[in-house]
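> tool_call: predict_assembly(chains=two)
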Amino acid sequence: MTRPQVEPWVPADDRGLAYGDGLFETILVRDGEPLLWPQHMARLGRGCQRLGIPMPAAAELDGLPAQAGPGLKVLKLILTRGSGGRGYFAPPIAKPRLLWQAFDFAPQPQHWESGVRVRHCRLQLSIQPLLAGLKHLNRLENVLARSEWDDPDVAEGVLCDTQGHLVEATCMNLFWQRRGCLETPRLDGSGVAGTLRAVLMERLEINEVTMGPEVLAEAEAVWLGNSVQGLWPVVRLDDADGSRQLNWTLGPVHRTLQGKAHELLGYPATFAR
Amino acid sequence: MTRPQVEPWVPADDRGLAYGDGLFETILVRDGEPLLWPQHMARLGRGCQRLGIPMPAAAELDGLPAQAGPGLKVLKLILTRGSGGRGYFAPPIAKPRLLWQAFDFAPQPQHWESGVRVRHCRLQLSIQPLLAGLKHLNRLENVLARSEWDDPDVAEGVLCDTQGHLVEATCMNLFWQRRGCLETPRLDGSGVAGTLRAVLMERLEINEVTMGPEVLAEAEAVWLGNSVQGLWPVVRLDDADGSRQLNWTLGPVHRTLQGKAHELLGYPATFAR
């Protein structure tokens, strides 16, 4: 992502800044056409309902992707509850603030083709069922988890919750195949329910499970994915110290799910190996 | 609190807005003199250290309270990590953004004198030891908890964590006396370590405990307090449906701790009963 094309400002009393009282979406847009738009709007709507923030009119939202301009972009929407209220007490009638920025975007084809090395994070995600699955603005845990490494060869970090169950990566969802079945962590206590995850779960049989990281040792294939980057096969998993713990050889199993995900995003669906 | 005297703005790419990646302090200021300033700066410093945000120079911070102007004010500081970085990955050299606003403030003497009615909240605070105690910008749980009631006769809500242990109120710390000893919840998993709590713990023997709400039935006195409002005796505790669960009669025990807290804040230290 490079420089934003729009730089809106918010007042310091905006509740999104003061309390993280709001939601966001990051949407892949190709020549003004958003990918997985219904899924993004559905998640935003669920977040609005859960937080009691009025959802902006569809007409207002639907016009934004076209304004991102030509080429491959990431459109970032931020919806806050706006200003007002008394401390944490929200104003009875909120006037939400909708911000958007569009960034040039280039995906990482080497991650698609060769897979990625990832590591376990030490941080354990806290469990809050009232916020689980939402893409809300309280993301300090993700920031802290992402600060655990700066080795550019490590593409992502895998996170468990405080009960030791697998949840996600710092900005991607986690999938694996075990005994021929696709599985992904259940997100009823922590994590962000990704839109790529949602659409894959609509189209394929993917079981939501509550399991510790030891399950990955039984996996034939592991992937990380989101609606912007596509699907990255995991070829190596390190522990939180950076020592190799598990590895996988890229094969047809990896390519099958990757192809299905990439068709949805307009990314390459077949690879040399 | 009424209208702010300063209305700064932040760009939409500020990480405080994007992720709640920052800290805040709300400081009582009387005629330009801040109350509990060392405790506020100590907590801000701990937060900076934990999040890896450079602490602003003391000279910059120390000059702010005087700018709040004459009278009784609340000075709100927000310190964000600033803009930049790649997604959750923080910029290696952060340029933090320091904002401040000053609000006219009037405390609530009726709460000091007659005590308050509070209720249990349904929301259980999530457990994240890496963030516990800090006054960071990820406060959606407080917002959701505060949204559980709008009865103006209910002054605060008492919160437990997901393990069922008492933590705090939505914007105040919790204290009680039991068998002649002062106690307050340990804040190693959730909650904000208040500055009034900190200074009271420096001066008095107050035990930090990990206990469920049933302990309150054994309490001779219960209080809520923070560095802005002072100390409120609790005279009635309702369950999450609003039905009375416990009550206390105001007495000398209440007034003793209240007097010590209020001396620190320049609030009235003696009451008629």
